[in-house]
Amino acid sequence: MINHSGGASGSDITWENEGLEYGVDTIAYSFQGHNQKSKNQKILTPEELEIGWENIKIADKSLHRGLNRTEYIKNLLSRNYYQVKNSDCIFAIGYIASDNKVKGGTGWAVQMAIDVGKPVYIFDQTENHWFIYLAPKFVKYYDVPKLTGNFAGIGTRQITEDGINAIKEIYSVNFSEIT
Prior knowledge:
globular; eight-stranded mixed beta sheet; 5 helices; alpha/beta; Rossmann fold
């Protein structure tokens, strides 16, 4: 099982560290000059980051957040593309805004996944509940989502205790079903 991550503090590193207990490998996409927490960095080339940026432009057509970003922020957003591209399902910890979009940097990865039709689950830390994206919106999901062999475990840097517990539970439930 492989977790595709950004290696950031908070949710990303929690997905990675909790996954270690179950033998889950992590690939943490990064770039030159990026300070991340993962020991499993995959440094993206400038050419790969440019491909990621082209996909950010597509996501912005739905998000309407604007593309005027510093080079560092452009690279942070661009690396999100590889989390989505290389996974078959996205599991995020964060917040769903009133416009039914996911807040912050996590929202870019979520939108790219939605744009290409990949399944998306988000644990909303305001409601402390899992949601699934069923076009055109997120709806409550009344079970613990099933992890896939290649998943993106991502989310906010401001993870709460409930968010941490959601990650622990998803691993615990999924791996207890395997054994």
